[in-house]
Specification:
Strand content: under 5%
Shape: globular
Low-confidence stretches: 225-229
Distance between the termini: 22 Å
Structural class: mainly alpha
Number of helices: 7
Largest sheet: none
Amino acid sequence: MMRFFVTRLWLRWTFITLAGFFVGGVLGMLGGFLGVPLIGYPLALVIPGCQGQGAIGCFLIGSTLGAGLGLGVSVGTAQWFILRSIVPRSWWWILASALGWCGIAYTLTMMLYSTVPAPGSSDFGKPIWAIIPSAWGAIAQVTLSGALMGLFQWLILRGSLQKSFWWIPANAIIMLIAAFGVLGLGYNIGGLPGMGAFVVSFSPIYAISSGIIFGWLRQQNRNQTSDEV
């Protein structure tokens, strides 16, 4: 265990991921604004029910995907600076991260608007464990989005790191924690801008957890190489 922490790879991954979130907060906000005209407006033209007041939902989707894209590109690019010396064709990591964070942003936002109890509802003010039975579907979607991002990224890691399959359930568990965070904070998040603030505030948990997992995978690869020699 001490040998793992001495490598400090997990620590470098953590700090550079946090830097990616810091920049991603700005890019995500910009992407959220641009997502309305670039994604939301086209969706409103082609999806039934997105006319009139129904267009608000498509605008929300467009803004969410734009924000997720900006965040994913930023975080993926930051992590690429470490991966480029370890994984061949590591530039694909940026695309995998962008797609993954789009899905995570979408499912977290839909969870906020469709599952979190609003003032005046029968579930408002109830403890989190009382809301879970009615929210399990949304929780599962957020968890699945984390697993999908892990899958996209695993396709890049699998040729270079031993036991890299663990990257998939690790990301699923991290996003499961995020789902419970949204459910616990509930209406206090305060809509899409608040969701962006939540994701950034959640970043230390993601950065540290993914850093430890990545450092462990890297250490497994080194141990395997030593055994072969």
